[in-house]
Amino acid sequence: MTSKDEAQECFVYIILPGETNFVTAAKFHLAADRRGAPTGKFVYGSTYLTRENAVSLDPLELKLSKKTYTTRQLKGVFGALRDASPDYWGRRVIEKHAGLPQLREIDYMLQSPDDRAGALGFGLNVEPPAPRRKFNQTIELARLQESADAIIADEEPPKGVKAEQIDDLMLVGTSMGGARPKAVVEDDGSLWIAKFNRPDDKWNIARVEQAMLALARECALKVSESKVAAVGDRDVLMVKRFDREKTKRGYRRARMLSSLTLLRAEDTHQDRSRWSYVLLAEELRRITSQPKADAAELFRRMVFNALISNSDDHPRNHAIIAMERDWRLSPAYDLTPLPQISIEHRDLALECGDMGRYANAGNLLSQSARFLLGPKEAEKIISDMERVVVKRWYDIARKEGVSEKDCANIAGAFVYPGFRL
Ligand SMILES: Nc1ncnc2c1ncn2[C@@H]1O[C@H](COP(=O)(O)OP(=O)(O)OP(=O)(O)O)[C@@H](O)[C@H]1O
Ligand SMILES: [Mg+2]
User: Which of 270, 319, 321, 346 yields a CA-CA distance of 20 to 30 A from 255?
Assistant: First the structure.
């Protein structure tokens, strides 16, 4: 498996509900079709299908069945598998470590560490490996921050200590998605995503994101637990992983799918016709065990994003999870205020109503029925949340350690005038 044209193949492992070890679930095969388009094939193992507690990796696209599934979307990688692969940051670390600019899709899946979002693992052997048991510890945060900085600066490690430094870089290698520098850290009997600030950030993103998570909690949204750790004069945001649960035997894992996968959408901004909260609400209602509660929660999240001008609310920033058999909307994460120049018209990343992506109260209300909300109920959610955001954003930001200067930098993000035009 060396040439780019050769078929690529791997086994897919899963940690089933209630368990802490992998079992082999399926085989994945990626090759170019006759026209050269990458085509993925996926088939569940026959032993897996006979397991009493077998679960599907994707309740809509990969139902438990003997058939061979085929896809040409997402470069031939099924959404459920792509969601378990590293993204911009994790790929950059692997490339740096391997000394190669770009690897094949399957190399990223195989070379990334076993800390990926969700319950899956990948490997070349039919027998699964033992799950990862050793994680970075909080005490190592300063070293992790240093490694992340080195990758951002693209520095070559100084001669003489090269090998050691290169191994260090992998400490911040993670299969978790997202573009920002991060590492997975064990702390207080749980796993956390440590999100590092970048030297070129316009404001203290760790503190600001922490404040947004706190503001969302105050707006009664379901939100990931989080805290800020100070490392020297730098701050690191720690977000508790909702897809892991420690037991005496090891970590349990929840299956996890991004809304990019639920929407069957491509992940480029050029091809975003299916990026829509309204469509997402429909898909979510088909899958979740609590359609009414989760559709309303998604509505509240969309409203919150409009109220804080979070235009980075792309489909990988929403997910569904299943710790047991049933699927639910995941807690909110990655909430970022983005003050923009226009005070009349701002767009979210996903469509939210009849007027497209417009972050405007009337637009948010226009499709409330699809979120299983009556017009009055939806209007009340919007006005209650608007009141909390106006009244509380500043105090919460200050309480979470956002400086006066940074508050001034982000002030224009909250309830911009166009929200009520
Ligand atoms: N609390 C959590 N528990 C489990 N998985 C999470 C959690 N928070 C985030 N994730 C997963 O990790 C990925 C990266 O996290 P996050 O979105 O916070 O990073 P980011 O680098 O800021 O992303 P972006 O590229 O959108 O700016 C998410 O897309 C999601 O799959
Ligand atoms: Mg993100």
Answer: 270
- DSSP for 331-379, written as a single string: PB--------S-SS--B-SSB-BTTBTB--HHHHHTTGGGGT--HHHHH
In this prediction, residue 168 has a pLDDT band, given cuts at 50, 70 and 90, of: low
- Quick one: which ligand is closest to 319's CA? 1
Give the bridge partners for 41, in sequence order: 29, 70
User: In terms of Cα–Cα distance, which of 22, 18, 26 is closest to 56?
Assistant: 26
Residue 334 in contact with ligand 1 by CB distance below 6 A: yes
Decide: 252 and 323 in contact? Cβ < 8 Å. Answer: yes
Give the Å distance between the CA of 206 and the centre of ligand 1: 13
How high is the pLDDT of residue 132? 81
**Global confidence as pTM:** 0.94
Task: Give the chain's end-to-end CA distance (angstroms, integer).
Answer: 57
- Does the structure show a pLDDT above 60 at 156? no
Q: C-alpha angle 403/406/410, rounded to 5°?
A: 135
Count of CB atoms situated within 10 Å of the CB of 156: 10
Statement: residue 206 has pLDDT above 60: yes
Q: Is the CB of 254 under 6 A from ligand 1?
A: no
With H, G, I as helix, E, B as strand and everything else as coil, classify residue 22.
strand
Phi, psi of 255 (to 5 degrees): -65, 150
